[in-house]
Write a structure and sequence with these properties.
The complex is a heterodimer of chains A (112) and B (119).
Chain A lengths: L8 E4 L5 E6 L11 E6 L6 E4 L13 E6 L2 E6 L8 E8 L7 E3 L3 E5 L1
Parallel strand pairs in A: 1-9
Antiparallel strand pairs in A: 2-6, 3-4, 3-7, 5-6, 7-8, 7-9
Chain B lengths: L2 E5 L2 E3 L5 E8 L7 E7 L5 E7 L5 E3 L7 E6 L4 E6 L8 E9 L5 E5 L3 E5 L2
Parallel strand pairs in B: 2-11
Antiparallel strand pairs in B: 1-3, 3-8, 4-5, 4-9, 5-6, 7-8, 9-10, 9-11
The chains are: A mainly beta (112), B mainly beta (119).
Amino acid sequence: QSALTQPPSASGSPGQPVTISCTGTSSDVGAYNYVSWYQQHPGKAPKVLIYEVSKRPSGVPDRFSGSKSGNTASLTVSGLQAEDEADYYCSSYAGSNNFPYVFGTGTKVTVL
Amino acid sequence: EVLLVQTGGGLIQPGGSLRLSCAASGFTVTNSYMGWVRQAPGKGLEWVSVIFIAGTTHYINSVKGRFTISKDSSKNTLFLQMNSLTVEDTALYFCVRAVPTASGYFDPWGQGTPVTVSS
């Protein structure tokens, strides 16, 4: 199936909020509350920030939050910090009839 | 500590074969949903293959018939056998675990192992 659609880039000043969208279809994002978000710094493995649309694993700062409406999920960083400059990917479960997972196209977040 | 440590990979000529390994600690691979994700240079994340607890496997179309995912309970290790490699397979390969179920999120990730297919 096709990758979920994310904006290629987003930016904000320190302390400002930034929101990244993740648009899928009624077969993935719209069908399941199994959307997760990952942060990847250059040369590193991705790290989970959000799972099941809006839940945060322990250790993830509460400035990261997630939501979903219809076929579009969103990740919001409420107050950007320098260390938030990274690539962000969404992921959705897509059922068992085809390949069960799909990633988003990725968004590069720049802290101005 | 829950950890995945990858080995294998490297430089290989087109048409060649490689086997990637992913050793788990802190949990058992046979009781886990596991998979391989790759990232071509400068590109985004792409699923390659997954294997579920019951042994069900899935592959993306571009690797079907060429790649095989498997688990070894005695070594507590996940493998990806890659045959008939092409330049399009050049990427950094990560192993991952899905928690707590197949529809869950992915944690931990291996450190990544590079595969370069070039003549």
